[in-house]
Amino acid sequence: MYNVFSTREIGVLKVVNLMLTARQMLIFKCIVEEFIENAEPVGSKALMVKYQLPYSSATIRNEMNFLENYGYLEKTHISSGRVPSKEGYRFYVHNLGKVDLDEGTKNQVATIINKHRRNLNEMVHESCNMLSELTHLTSVALGNASDDMLQRISVVPLDDGRVTAIIITSQGHVENKVFQFSSDVEMEDLLSCVNVMNELLIGTPISEVAFRLERDVRPILTTQVKQHEELFNAFLEAFVKFASNSVYFSGKENILYQAEFNDVDKLRRLVSAFENSKVWKTLPLSSEDGIQINIGNETPLGKMNDVSVISASFKTGETSKGSISVIGPTRMPYEKVVSLVEYISRNIEEAFFDESDDSNDKQDEK
Fold it and tell me: Which residues, including other chains, have CB under 8 Å from residue 346's CB and lie 6 or more apart?
């Protein structure tokens, strides 16, 4: 069975310059969904048979011509069939109905949220992993650390001169960094270094920690710690990486198997974009709630017109936001992806602020 708009639903759908009839809207929706499924130009006869449309092939063909003339469909040079244009996708997305997620998917989201409620970083990353698995596309998470502050640094000795440093922030972000120190570095010096940093840096915004390390911590380490230079450089590198590491991908390989990217040049540009985190930091975090959909050249990929990015932001503080996005071909299943991205982002934000409120209440009780 194929879900289509009812006549009553279709009759009220409009675009700015054009009112589509119920028949035109039904045919258009079937074309979009057929192309999303098969990535092949859609012909009138195949459309009539598969979707059991109550119109003749000639009538469907006339309506397809009408939709093409108004810019919602395009005719490919390799077939008499039609494919949705960028404007057609925009119209389709604008008129999407809300799709309820099944209980199984909602339970998956709840499991992730409850498991990582005290760690925003892991909550977002595992949510991204789930998104890429459910959509068979690529997902990306962006962070904004403007409100995030250093909460604690601790170290765990391993072996052969290795230690794990654990950096925790006020928003639940955790960075584990394994250091390999020379045999000259003693555990006593390492602990002294960590104690100084905890004393001077707790409460410092993550974006300012590297500066404060240089200005406030380094002079003290110079006088109190033997191998201060090696220790200082190790932690400086860790904090610089932590502050800039705000882009997380999941399922990069999924999009590579889409029919649109069989072209070697397109594939090369896509892989290059995935390797450049700065490209994705240009994705705007919407100042308002809701879904943001970028199609074709609106995405950070610029000239790659057959890529869409669906994003939703979530608050992580008074002035900071994060976002999760799904990257896929323009023929991605928008109804499913939009519903997933919106639901997951909303649950992340609610869980984060619920946990923040609980922490504040406990502090007040003390």
Answer: 312, 314
Spatial contact of 249 and 271, defined as CB atoms under 8 Å apart: no
pTM for this structure? 0.71
Rounded to 5 degrees, φ, ψ at 151 are -110, -40
Torsions phi, psi of 178, nearest 5?
A: -90, 125
Least Cα distance to 308 among 109, 99, 13, 92 occurs for: 92
CA within 13 Å, CB half, 139: 24
Alpha helices in 39-119 (DSSP H): 44-50, 57-69, 86-94, 103-115
Kindly give the residue spans of alpha helices, DSSP state H, lying in 136-275. Answer: 187-201, 206-212, 218-224, 228-244, 252-256, 264-275
In eight-state DSSP terms, residue 116 is T
pLDDT digit string (tens) for the chain, length 366 residues: 333 333 333 333 433 346 789 999 999 999 999 999 998 999 999 899 999 999 999 999 999 999 999 999 998 766 668 999 989 998 998 886 667 899 999 999 999 988 877 677 788 889 999 999 999 999 998 875 555 788 899 988 887 778 888 888 877 777 778 888 877 778 888 888 999 999 999 998 877 888 888 899 999 988 888 878 888 888 888 887 776 656 888 998 888 788 888 777 777 788 777 777 767 777 765 555 578 888 887 887 767 778 899 999 888 766 667 889 999 999 999 989 999 999 999 999 888 777 655 544 544 554
Question: Pairing between strand 150-157 and 138-142?
Answer: unpaired
Nearest-CA neighbor of 166 among 188, 185, 151, 182? 151
